[in-house]
Amino acid sequence: MVIGIVISLLLLTWIAYRGFSVILFAPICALVAVVSAGLPILPSYTEMFMPRAVIYVKNFFPVFLLGAVFGKVMEDSGAARSVARAIANALGAQRAVLAVVLAAAVLTYGGVSLFVVAFAVYPFAAALFEEADFPRRLIPGCIALGAFGFTMTATPGTPQIQNMIPATYFGTNAFSAPLFGSVGAIIIFVAGVSWLEYRRRKMMAAGERYGEKDTRVQTAVTNDGVSDIPAGLAALPLITVLVLNFIFTKIISGWDKALLAGTAKQPLAATAIPVANWALIISLVVGILLAIVISAKQFKARGNLQTALNTGAIGSLLAIMNTASEVGYGNVVSSLPGFAAVRDFLLSIDPGTPLISEALVVNVLAGITGSASGGMSIALEAMGARYLEWANAAGVSADLLHRVAAMSSGGFDSLPHNGAVITLLAICGMTHKKSYPDIGMSTVVIPFATTLVLIVVWTVLGLNF
């Protein structure tokens, strides 16, 4: 039975690597494991796979939808480009590595989706690197560190979905374990920039320079001739989302649970107030409206507001369904008799804290699926309740469980078959051979090592926040 689960996981990994849609193939991979366990196919699909996928959509679709629309509005209005350009110009060409990392980080921490960040930052990264004559193949590593690294998972309050998922399982919020997350973010940032600078110096000492000019850059920078809004104004929606998310997290956490009484008999009704989701929904709605208002002139001149809203909404469907399919897959596999042996083995990794086991499980599943959100959702769906029970018995706070899960999702997820990595390389005109070593060090090795080291330090010091 365990062999069937392993074959199913390997098949899902291969399919993800080859670029096939997990919406179609996740249920097929799940049914491979079902057949090996001798269980009926159709009931497993309709009564095990689909219900859990639907629950995931119910819990997170508003966040995916509003996040995608917000990112697209920031992109199509030119606001994201203005912020990236301002940071790049302020630091200058000789600090191009730092400038690119910070530009990507600011946009990601402000709620802009990772793909939008890559598109917005690359033109200015290329211009800065060309001016400084730095090796162009370092650009993907710089963008990845800022967008896929510490601001996606570690920095308290980040509105990225990877920071919202654990809240549903642990009853926490986006600002959980602020000290652990902040220290982790600083370490990942400093170590990542140091590595990229080391690589730049080494490449340049060997005679490598920028190389052939990317002819796409000038077109991207000048865009369509319509002036973008000033950077300070463009950053206002980003700041608003962060500030309101913090404020409403505090406000909603004090609301009476009786507020849900009228929905108790509804299908899939929540049993506890979803503080993290409600706070972020309100914040993103305000952020979207503010971005539209301050970019009214740009949208009117370009006539692309309708396109931005429609494209963002449609794009969110693909993102949510990809992850929901992986969650449905995880529910089927975790329900099979053979999984009990795997679960018991993972839970037997007991150094006195559930954090080590959680970090390893989330990392491995994120690596298998090539998705931070998908891998973490599978892990927490299968074992979140057990980890919370273990944490309560060991005196470990749910906030730490939240932060470790989020940070661990941003480790092995960035292996070569990850969709965001493949897209980033395409945007930058680079190959895995040229640029992946620096992406891997910045977004796999450093975050993974940082999380494990911090868990050990926190455990030794007896810290719980």
Explain the overall architecture.
Helix 3 runs antiparallel to helix 15. The chain has one domain (2-461). It is globular. 76% of the residues lie in helices and 0% in strands. It is mostly helical.
Order of helices and strands: HHHHHHHHHHHHHHHHHHHHH
Mean pLDDT score: 88
How many angstroms separate the termini?
A: 40 Å
Number of helices: 21
The assigned structural class equals: mainly alpha
Give the overall form. globular
> Percent helix among the residues?
over 70%
DSSP strand count = 0
Major sheet characteristics: none
The total tally of domains equals 1
Oligomer: single chain
Entry keywords:
single chain; 465 residues; globular
Topology:
Layout: H1 2-18, H2 22-36, H3 41-76, H4 79-91, H5 96-109, H6 114-132, H7 139-153, H8 161-170, H9 178-205, H10 216-222, H11 231-234, H12 236-253, H13 275-294, H14 296-302, H15 305-334, H16 339-347, H17 354-369, H18 372-394, H19 398-409, H20 419-428, H21 432-461
Helix pairs in contact: 1-2, 2-3, 2-15, 3-13, 3-15, 4-5, 4-6, 5-6, 5-7, 6-7, 6-10, 6-20, 7-9, 7-20, 7-21, 8-18, 8-19, 9-19, 9-21, 12-13, 15-18, 17-18, 17-19, 17-21, 18-19
Question: What's a quick, concise take on this entry?
Answer:
With 465 residues, the protein is mostly helical.
